[in-house]
């Protein structure tokens, strides 16, 4: 059995988008003259790869990061490396893709493209072995996967309170809000960010974890002061306070706060995470399997993290991350982007795939009997997409 063909499909959303109330700090927020700091970080398209074998298996992978660029990389650079190879040799094929692109790759779009293909190869491996991917990675380590509700984009305090209260009532044991006010709003903005945290904490009480997303939007002095202000609210973590390259500053921040620091959503490969470990930069790693180098890298990073007492709580929900969470003792829970109208792009996957796990009482379940990733592509209700092949 060899790889016969690789198809790439770019799903571009053409339907309605609700953006008015989704304001949060980003790395661009620190720059002057910015009217819309979210713009570079909203994405309304998604890449799907389909890897077909000579005996008729089709593995599905995906990449959400700059999918138009990722498509080009798969089509022109990576697919030719895989055609004719056995899809089961995932370790070798990862190294072949990584080492063939290392001069211009290593991180970012190239690693997202490699990730999409690696996920598809593991999907094939599961189909061939007639086992779900999590069984191949280590099997079941939990009865179910606890998940935390990840949205709370609004800066309107009444709406924020109502949303937090509603999702607590649905059974979620954790929820994450965003820093609605960027660094350029100064001390007044910081107070409003803290006020949003206080409101959510008071709304959900002490039995629900509260987390704060900073999306790389701040610098060291602001982050240090913000952490001081947040100390009373018993946060489960504060996420991506700084740029992913400011590894040494994360370590400095850790000296000042008892609040766990998380990140790694924009870090790549086991080499990248080894640098984070060596610098003692973070308490929680949040790679996304569809960026970090697929299951082949995710598995290695889980081991690294376990050695160091670092938790793995991947970015995004989606099946590729749930298989990792289910099979790793280092991973206590998953993120859950609820299915909503299209807002920032995180929700798009619900409209592309069948088979994504839906939270019940805040928990997610995987089927022991569904081979591979357990996903298929939707064939109906696609009128709001343009699909570019
Ligand atoms: Mg994040």
Automatic annotation (TrEMBL):
One Pfam entry name: MR_MLE_C
GO MF, one annotated term: L-rhamnonate dehydratase activity
Keyword Oxidoreductase carried by entry: no
Main EC class the enzyme belongs to: lyase
Entry keyword Metal-binding: yes
Ranges for domain Mandelate racemase/muconate lactonizing enzyme C-terminal: 157-260
Signal peptide (UniProt feature, chain positions): none
InterPro entries from the UniProt entry: Enolase-like_C_sf, Enolase-like_N, Enolase_C-like, Mandel_Rmase/mucon_lact_enz_CS, Mandelate_racemase_C, Mandelate_racemase_N_dom, RHMD-like
UniProt cross-references to PROSITE patterns, sorted A to Z: MR_MLE_1
Cofactor needs: Mg(2+)
UniProt superkingdom: Bacteria
EC number: 4.2.1.90
Single Gene Ontology BP annotation: amino acid catabolic process
Keyword field: Magnesium, Metal-binding
Family: Belongs to the mandelate racemase/muconate lactonizing enzyme family. RhamD subfamily.
Subunit description: Homooctamer; tetramer of dimers.
Name the UniProt record assigns to this protein: L-rhamnonate dehydratase
